[in-house]
């Protein structure tokens, strides 16, 4: 069946550091891929998405590229800020349903 | 738009009690989803509705859980009787459709604690 695997957290970085959060998936067919972000005490918000191979999703300085050959959708940001501290979820869409990874907690220190 | 509205935000109850969680989706959204988030199992889809009709309830853990959507602007998730292992954050989400261009919008969640 469909599944998503993310790198375990927590990830702790200093402000302005480079961020990578790894995400790989298993799916039949060609799912759409998503990154959601959850700030403390809030629900999930869509951060970015990609709908086909080689697509790059981007938003707020975050980027992720849909790599079909490696079944990956790694999240990157060149320079993180304290305000980026949150939990990040990778997800795929299968049959209209979202299947989430376990989430990766990011903590950015000043 | 007010976004997806959930109530209550926090609920503490004792084992054996009935718990009802409420959700108001975004107006015009035809799909409504209920998720459960725990440390052990992450985010799980419990059930989703299309035009108020339950489409897939395969994620509902057991008969103690039930969900209804009596109209387009209201849904409930009920647990009766509640057990400590039901403690989790329950999210409601809604979307206009299931096309790739459609985004699921999440509510702030209800944190349930069963003692």
What brief labels describe this structure?
heterodimer, A: mainly beta, six-stranded mixed sheet, four-stranded antiparallel sheet, 0% helix, B: 115 residues, mainly beta, seven-stranded mixed sheet
Provide an overview of this structure.
The complex is a heterodimer of chains A (about 110) and B (about 120). Chain A contains no helices and twelve strands. Chain A is an all-beta fold. Chain A is globular. Chain B is mainly β. Helices cover about 0% and strands about 55% of the residues of chain B. Chain B is globular, with a radius of gyration of 13 Å. The termini of chain B are far apart. In chain B, about 35% of the residues are buried. The interface of A and B includes residues 51 and 93 of A.
Query: What's the order of the H and E elements of chain B?
Result: EEEEEEEEEEE
Relative helix content of chain A = under 10%
Mean pLDDT of chain A: 93
Strand content of chain A: over 45%
How many runs of DSSP E, i.e. beta strands of chain B?
11
Cα distance, first to last residue of chain A?
41 Å
**What proportion of the residues of chain B form beta strands (DSSP E)?**
over 45%
Which value, in Å, is the CA radius of gyration of chain B?
A: 13 Å
Kindly report the average pLDDT value of chain B.
94
